[in-house]
């Protein structure tokens, strides 16, 4: 069976209805640098008043990782943003191979940039926040981060034919037999054992992920439903605990039937290969189930069409 780790904090209640959940599933993030003013004598000067700064930028910069063509730019501020339109107007994205994009506010402190179509692969993208130009933001520093877009990895998972096809820069690179969610556990009207259909993005990966039954409320080792397993080659694709990972045995079902708790199980060789090429922001399209992926379940922002996405901008078009 697919094993389910404890979840990342989810944006919606659906994320509590997990399919696979890990004990530790934190997605690495980058903290904005803290800048101190230094006087002529080398003594730290009194800090100037700053009412808004950036607390986090995701994903990491070009020196730390390459990202997939679906990647979002996620900016988290250190305080609630009062004038979202003014702040959004100071956020700039410049790509070597430009494509249309827009920001969407998902909370008082967090705004996300998504493109209309996927980024072009093999290029650099520069994000700049000109917070020094925000009225009253005395002492603020402009913040920049450059991203490196890697290979265009598009994976298509068909839960009815039990196969995953992985395309790299437009060419079919590998076919991998899989087993997806079998269904059969309904909570609050949602079958949480079904894999969600929709456009997922890879959010992170671990060579070994600890998956437990705690998501079901089962923590007693004496309970026959209890499990705690170390699962190899785990690539996270949602906040509700879905992964592409190596099947923990049960290889006879791969390519034949759906038997998991919601994750996409793959052969040992296939899972290891997929893990090796996976970049955060790669696209994983899943089809064939009745359970729809919610747009705010992880990095599933491509579930909104372009018109709907732009409605989240504070700027009038």
Q: Could you explain the architecture of this structure?
A:
- By secondary structure, the protein is mainly beta.
- The chain folds into two domains: 13-26 and 152-303, L,D-transpeptidase catalytic domain-like (Beta Barrel); 30-150 and 306-310, Immunoglobulin-like (Sandwich).
- Helices cover 6% and strands 32% of the residues.
- The strands form four sheets. Strands 15-20-10-11-12-19-18-17-16 form a nine-stranded mixed β-sheet. It has a five-stranded antiparallel β-sheet with strand order 1-2-4-7-6, with no helix packed on it. The protein has a four-stranded mixed β-sheet with strand order 3-9-8-5, with no helix packed on it.
- The longest helix is centred in the C-terminal third of the chain and has 10 residues, at 268-277.
- The radius of gyration is 21 Å and the shape is globular.
- The N and C termini lie far apart (48 Å).
- Residues 1-18 and 24-43 have low confidence and may be disordered.
- The active site is at residues 245, 263.
- This is L,D-transpeptidase.
- It comes from Nonomuraea helvata.
């Amino acid at each position: 069976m697919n094993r389910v780790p404890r979840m990342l904090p989810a944006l919606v209640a659906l994320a509590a209805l997990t399919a696979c959940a890990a004990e530790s599933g934190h997605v690495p993030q980058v903290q904005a640098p803290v800048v101190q003013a230094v006087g002529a004598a080398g003594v730290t000067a009194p800090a100037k008043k700053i009412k808004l700064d950036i607390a986090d930028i995701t994903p990491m910069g070009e020196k730390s990782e390459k990202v997939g063509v679906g990647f979002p730019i996620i900016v988290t501020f250190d305080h609630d943003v009062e004038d979202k339109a003014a702040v959004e107007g100071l956020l700039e994205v410049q790509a070597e191979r430009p494509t249309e994009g827009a920001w969407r506010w998902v909370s008082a402190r967090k705004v996300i940039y998504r493109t209309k179509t996927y980024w072009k692969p093999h290029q650099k993208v520069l994000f700049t926040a000109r917070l020094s130009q925000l009225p009253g933001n005395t002492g603020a520093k402009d913040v920049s981060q450059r991203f490196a877009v890697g290979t265009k990895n598009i994976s298509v998972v068909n839960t009815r034919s039990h196969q995953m096809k992985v395309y790299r820069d437009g060419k079919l690179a590998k076919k991998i037999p899989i087993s997806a969610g079998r269904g059969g556990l309904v909570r609050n009207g949602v079958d949480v054992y079904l894999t969600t259909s929709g456009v997922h993005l890879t959010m992170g990966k671990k060579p070994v992920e600890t998956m437990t039954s705690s998501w079901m409320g089962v923590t007693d080792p004496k309970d026959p439903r209890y499990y705690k397993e170390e699962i190899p080659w785990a690539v996270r694709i949602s906040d509700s605990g879905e992964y592409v990972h190596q099947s923990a045995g049960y290889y006879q079902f791969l390519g034949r039937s759906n038997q998991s708790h919601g994750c996409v199980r793959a052969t040992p060789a296939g899972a290891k290969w997929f893990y090796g090429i996976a970049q955060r922001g790669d696209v994983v399209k899943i089809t064939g189930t009745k359970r729809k992926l919610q747009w705010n379940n992880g990095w599933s922002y491509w579930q909104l069409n372009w018109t709907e996405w732009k409605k989240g901008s504070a700027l009038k078009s």
